[in-house]
Amino acid sequence: MAEKKVLKEADVSFKEVKWGRTKELVGPATAGSAHVKVNITEYAPGRPHELHLHPGQEEVIFILSGEGYTESYGRRRELSPGSVVYIPADTEHATMTAGSEPMTALIVKGPPEERRDEGSGRDL
Amino acid sequence: MAEKKVLKEADVSFKEVKWGRTKELVGPATAGSAHVKVNITEYAPGRPHELHLHPGQEEVIFILSGEGYTESYGRRRELSPGSVVYIPADTEHATMTAGSEPMTALIVKGPPEERRDEGSGRDL
């Protein structure tokens, strides 16, 4: 059974990803969660997270620092600290920093894993 | 069907609660989400959020500003910006600021609503 966990985000190590760096703060592997996953992600200059979607999985992006953009279906919106992006399951999106500094965000996903077998019925 | 949503947290109004103020950034009512709810909560001085639990619902608390405490089953841990608390479903917890300033946190819940009929089997 999952137990309560208290940690400092600074004590968790980043993993390199194509679009920058990410670290899992809470998830099935690190905390035994069943419904949510929470990461901190740094979007690196010159390495946009390209258009993608998550089958059966919702995402919330909360900008902690830096400036950037979110794109979906040809529309671009500016992001800055305090910006919130809600991305429904199966909805295309791209996220990237603006300029020469990383943009850092808290990333919430629910459920914690994508669900390729029980998505919205869209043909993927 | 839920649609992508972009907002600034500063544009959302707080609602008064017993332990301070809270505002929903993403949830079923405000964004059509089915799996997650994200709030910003300010824990006010002298108004601790007392011990409670959420049937069938996980919670993650990410401290944005201020200093405070989380308590569960007689154990108290200090919180400061960057602290992360994972609270499994059906697990007692209390959250409060320390001193004379509010403590502000991003609150993630999944699923968005408590599930009194399909919890962990604990007698509530």
Structure explained in plain terms:
Two copies of one chain form a homodimer. With 124 residues, the first copy, chain A, is mostly beta strands. Chain A contains one helix and eleven strands. Chain A has one helix spanning 28-31, and strands at residues 5-8, 15-17, 20-26, 37-43, 49-52, 58-65, 68-72, 75-79, 83-87, 93-97, 103-110. The A-B interface holds A 1-10, 25-26, 31-36, 38, 57-58, 60, 62, 70, 72, 77, 79-80, 82-89, 91, 93, 106, 108-111, 120 and B 1-10, 25-26, 31-36, 38, 57-58, 60, 62, 70, 72, 77, 79-80, 82-89, 91, 93, 106, 108-111, 120. Strand 1 of chain A pairs antiparallel with strand 9 (83-87) of chain B.
Helix fraction of chain A, binned, reads: under 10%
Q: Calculate Rg of chain A over CA atoms.
A: 15 Å
Distance between the termini of chain A: 34 Å
Q: Please, what is the average pLDDT of chain A?
A: 93
Query: Strand order, biggest sheet of chain A?
Result: 2-3-4-11-6-9
Protein chain pair with the most extensive contact, residues per chain: A-B, 44 and 44 residues
- Main beta sheet of chain A: strand number and arrangement? 6 strands, antiparallel
Low-confidence stretches of chain A: 119-124
How many separate helices of chain A?
1
Along the chain, the helix and strand elements of chain A come as EEEHEEEEEEEE
Shape of chain A: globular
Assembly context of the chains = homodimer
Taken as a percent bin, the fraction of beta residues of chain A is over 45%
The tally of strands of chain A reads: 11
Class of secondary structure makeup of chain A: mainly beta
